[in-house]
Description:
- By secondary structure, chain A is mainly alpha-helical.
- Chain A has one domain (24-153).
- Chain A has helices at 9-13, 17-20, 26-50, 53-82, 91-110, 122-139, 148-153, and strands at 86-89, 145-147.
- At the A-B interface, helix 4 and helix 5 of A face helix 1 and helix 2 of B.
Amino acid sequence: xxxxxxxxxxxxxxxxxxxxxxxxxxxxxxxxxxxxxxxxxxxxxxxxxxxxxxxxxxxxxxxxxxxxxxxxxxxxxxxxxxxxxxxxxxxxxxxxxxxxxxxxxxxxxxxxxxxxxxxxxxxxxxxxxxxxxxxxxxxxxxxxxxxxxxxxxx
Amino acid sequence: xxxxxxxxxxxxxxxxxxxxxxxxxxxxxxxxxxxxxxxxxxxxxxxxxxxxxxxxxxxxxxxxxxxxxxxxxxxxxxxxxxxxxxxxxxxxxxxxxxxxxxxxxxxxxxxxxxxxxxxxxxxxxxxxxxxxxxxxxxxxxxxxxxxxxxxxxxxxxxxxxxxxxxxxxxxxxxxxxxxxxxxxxxxxxxxxxxxxxxxxxxxxxxxxxxxxxxxxxxxxxxxxxxxxxxxxxxxxxxxxxxxxxxxxxxxxxxxxxxxxxxxxxxxxxxxxxxxxxxxxxxxxxxxxxxxxxxxxxxxxxxxxxxxxxxxxxxxxxxxxxxxxxxxxxxxxxxxxxxxxxxxxxxxxxxxxxxxxxxxxxxxxxxxxxxxxxxxxxxxxxxxxxxxxxxxxxxxxxxxxxxxxxxxxxxxxxxxxxxxxxxxxxxxxxxxxxxxxxxxxx
Lengths: 154, 441
């Protein structure tokens, strides 16, 4: 993944000192949505272990809430670009988070089934894959875009 | 670089689309009529097949279609979600205006399901009262229409025994003193016994009938979920048919494993109790057939662990092999998702010689099946106290010709004192009267 030598046009337009150092806003939202989706793996496992319906219910709500927060994160990401905070997408992290979120969307449908098959086997499997992707994204700092300050230093 | 990033996402989207768009169409319902219905393999869906017609009601002059030799007219219109109809000995007709007490959304899915059902009229407000209709003017309309009992709580079944009128609210059986000719009861009623209701009260209707000697009431109590998705704790005492002692109010479970027993009646020849039962959803357009069956004392009919005898439902964990081993196969399949809501044995040839021996069954109609199924009143012939042959459609035309709209949905059935068939229509807010074109034919 080679970085382009020149900042994109949008970034070139606004290179004054007032915008250069501003932090990315979307990271916290990605982290919050991601952690809700990760938590669903724990409640899925609890349902698998106990067959108590309330755990499956928690999973369904965690996934639904995670998806809503991820949607908010996308809006905030757009704000990061619009305000010149973000220079470009961070391809690796973006792919990880986008794939995890799409899996979670499918998983929300799986979790809309009734009783055992809402979790076992597909539901808990999708939760596990989402979790692995999101934890890698976490290690990479949750940011799915590169800030202008970083882009200009590079 | 951008295109390589998006390629796996595109693949994922295609995968999701393939999973959801399986377009699972139901087959010929006739394969599932009778004692040995065709049972396909169960499926688990991302989006279960769903088809909910838009409710449009009846325009002036529009009415259902009846089979040859019969005619149909509106006995009453402009009712508030009429579900049950009952004829008193003096020929007065009671109409129960009712609907679900309303359930909270427990899961994200419940919000969506609520919206879907609202489209089909399930969210309409019921009157929570009983209307009395008396007499007939020249145009067939009742000469008198009064509010007979008001302020009920999602009432359903009615049974008059001697001078006591029993009304099954969703949470209790109430007893009212009745004198022939009354047009209004204002007393609050005396509670005979509690019935399983909230929390949730998913299947809220309490169908009720009375034994021939008048000593026992039989009440159908539906499950508190589709298939235990609200946990086993809330299923305590549900999906069962209760026997209630009329003199003491003592009750016991007479038979169990009947997911939603929505209609109960005694077969007149043998005195055997029969029920129509709504089976489980979301494992396919042709699973599980709703059924008509004789109800054996102490019998177990499968729900939730199995269906149609010992076909295991994998959604239920932990399983109960001991119960599955003694699960009774129902007598007669009605095909899947027709939603039978009322069971009425004919009394001789009042409508037609063809309907002398057997039962009328109202089919409220499907929501999780395409093409739609039900939306009619059928007749199932009985020989020696057992259902035989194929169902015969008696009242149809509830669906619009486009297959996407619905004028009405049949629920309660009763015979009036002339032997005409009364059909309560909760989506059309009407009661229909079906009678022979030639009286006495």
